[in-house]
Amino acid sequence: MAKTFFIPNKESILGQQEVLTAKYILALVEGSESHSYDVVYLRQPLNRLEYMECGIVGQSQFLFKVNYADSRKGYQVVIPDFLTRADWEIVEPLLQALSSKLGQAVEGLEGFDFEAYFRQTVKHYLVDKAVRLVYCQELFSPIYLNKECLERFLAEDGLACFEELVKKVQGSDAYLASVKFYPDAQGKVHGIYHLAQGVKTILPKEPFVPVPYTEQLARKELVWEIDLVKISGDGSKAEDYQAIARLDYARFLDLLPEAFYQQLDANQLDANQLEVQPILGQDFEGLAQEK
C-alpha cells in the first residue's frame, strides 16, 4: 500500500512547462542523491527516466521514488509501505519545494499524518492472515517482520520501536546471508544458506522465500538447509572456501548456543533476523560434526 503524492506540472500560455531534470529535483533537498542512475543520466528531464530512487546517505533508512507521469502530466513521489520519520523529513521538504517551484498544490499531502500512515500500514498487513513475513527493503539491507513484530508496532511507542529495529539492522557490520535454491531428483527444492567460519553473519530465525522467487516456488516442496564453510588461506580465492557440512536449518538453530548470536533488535521483539557472532576453531568444527 505504497503512498503516491502528485503535483501537476505548471501550465503556461504555451502549454505544459518543460519537465524538470532529475538533477534539479535532487537539488531541491540538500544532500539528496539518486540510487538508480549515475550522474551523467541526471541531466535529462525526469520523464526520460522510468523513475528515480532517492535518499540521503547517513540519514535515509529507506528510499523513495520520484517520476514524471506523462499520462497525468505531473510529478509523482512514491513512499514505500514502511519508512521512518528521518525518511519523511526528506520527503516532505522535497514535496514542499517542488510544489513551490511549480506553483501547484501537492495532491495527497493535505491532512496526511505520517504516524497515522505507519499504523495504517501495519494494520493492512495484519488483516492478511496468509502473510507470515513482511519484506521491507532498507537502504542497505532487507528486513523481515513477522506477525508478533507488527502487533508490537501498534503500541503507543510502536513507531519508535520500528525505527530502533531498522537502525540496528542497517547499522550491523555483519554479512547478510542470502539463500540459494537447488532442485533435486525427487522434485524438491533445497533452500541453502551459508555460514562461513569466523564471519559475523545475519541469518533468519525462520527461512523464507525472497520476493523475486515467490511465484516460481509457490507450489514446490522446500527443504531448508545450511552449509558450514571453512576458510583456508587468506580467503581471496574461490578454492579457499570449502563446505564441510550441510545441516538441516532448524536443527542447526537448535544446536547454535545462545552465546553465539543475538536478535537484531534492542527490545527483544520477535523479529526474523539473528546476528551470529564469528565462530572459530573447535566451536565451528563441533557444529559441523553434528547431524
Summarize the structure.
This protein has 291 residues and is of the alpha+beta class. The protein has helices at 22-26, 85-102, 114-127, 147-152, 158-171, 249-255, 281-289; strands at 3-8, 11-12, 15-16, 33-34, 52-55, 64-69, 74-79, 133-137, 142-146, 175-176, 180-183, 189-196, 201-204, 222-231, 241-248, 261-263, 273-276. InterPro entries: DUF4299 (IPR025387).
Q: What does this protein look like?
A:
There is one protein chain. With 291 residues, the protein is of the alpha+beta class. Strands 1-7-6-5-4 form a five-stranded antiparallel β-sheet, with helices on one face. The protein is elongated, with a radius of gyration of 23 Å. The mean pLDDT is 87. InterPro entries: DUF4299. This is DUF4299 family protein. It comes from Streptococcus cristatus.
Structural topology:
Blueprint: E1 3-8, E2 11-12, E3 15-16, H1 22-26, E4 33-34, E5 52-55, E6 64-69, E7 74-79, H2 85-102, H3 114-127, E8 133-137, E9 142-146, H4 147-152, H5 158-171, E10 175-176, E11 180-183, E12 189-196, E13 201-204, E14 222-231, E15 241-248, H6 249-255, E16 261-263, E17 273-276, H7 281-289
Parallel strand pairs: 10-13, 12-14
Antiparallel strand pairs: 1-7, 2-3, 4-5, 5-6, 6-7, 8-9, 11-12, 13-17, 14-15, 16-17
